[in-house]
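Q: Here's a chain of 437 amino acids. Please give me its 3D structure as tokens.
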Amino acid sequence: MPPEFRRPLPPANVAELLQLADQCVKCGYCLPHCPTFQLARDEGESPRGRIALIQGWLGGEVELGARLEAHLDQCLECRACEPVCPSMVQYGRLMDGARALREQQRPGWRRLMARIRLDLLARPAWLPLTALAGIAYRWLRLPNPIVRRAAARWPLAAVLDPLARGLRWPASARRVSSLAQCSDARNNPLLPAQRRTDQTQAVDQGAPQTVRPALFRGCVARASQQPTERALLRVLDCVGHAAEVPADQVCCGAIHRHNGYPQAAERQLAQNRRCFGDGPVVGFASACVAELQEQGGLDAREICRYLVDLDWPRRVKLAPLPVTVAVHEPCSHRNLLRDQQAVYTLLRRIPGLRAIELAGNEHCCGAAGTYLTEHPATALALAQTKVDALKALRPAYLLTTNTGCALHLAARVQDAGLGTEVLHPVELIDRQLFLEP
């Protein structure tokens, strides 16, 4: 980095990060679990290698140059190293702190450009601009041969094309609530004709009304996972726990925190704490739920766990579905929430369903928040192992609980020509839900 751009590092921050880094004994237990190390076989692409580089940088022995920055940026922050670390190194906290210090060393114009890019994804007020870009891209109607040639030549094109095609105009909180009030199954031959047309009938007569949960909508999910959002609200309404949808909620802050802007992340969490208070919060994006729990101190619960813990009304049933589904376990569910078994427990409620783990669940799919747009070649390489596992299994559905993973894997499944539909588990529950007369 040019000398004119260097700034003195805050001593308190440096001391805290060095204390975290000193917990690492460089044993190497993390190496088999790190996706970037497995791809590159480069010590600088491993957790212990990055920790050593951070120690050298903060200790003044290593210059903050392009190579060091590349190793910091190429970390997925999947945190697969944390559960297996015998020294219990807080690697995610260390990496977030190192990136925040690195951002402080960058010139103002670069920080401004980064903040604009992140805000286009994370700020609800700006999200329509992002959705509009997707709508404009679809309007161009680029011929498929051109798209395929571009994707074959540039990994970023392969990533951005399906993302842009999947963006929709984000609905308001009131609109989302109104769309989730009833369901019509006339076009779904899998379900009995008695499926609900008025979900409020699901609550048993005389059953006490519990505290209503609040739905956390996330940010990008508002423009990309609207069917999941509506399915979650319908299911909760049917089991007697109709959710509120606060209009003044914002992003969980994870996008900014993992990219080196913790102050922006804390402002978002503060707004969410004011919005949700002490009541229960449910979310369908496991990464967002983990951030709200870990950093925000909110009573946030992933929707599968929330539904598993409920006593469902006697009239609420799930229609049989004798198919095989593969369950993708996002890093946020495995390594942060560490409660991926809730997904399988919930799916066992569907008679005849065979839910199995997708091979390679222990490794990241490459989505990792904004990572897939910043390191598309690595993201595509990591996703290929998931596609290979799906080719061998050929399940009817692939289920995942993370927004970025769902978008990334759905695009890769489509590219591979597989007929597997990518859904959130709550969407499958919604499709099978009906009321006994």
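Q: Can you summarize the key feature?
A: The mean pLDDT is 88.
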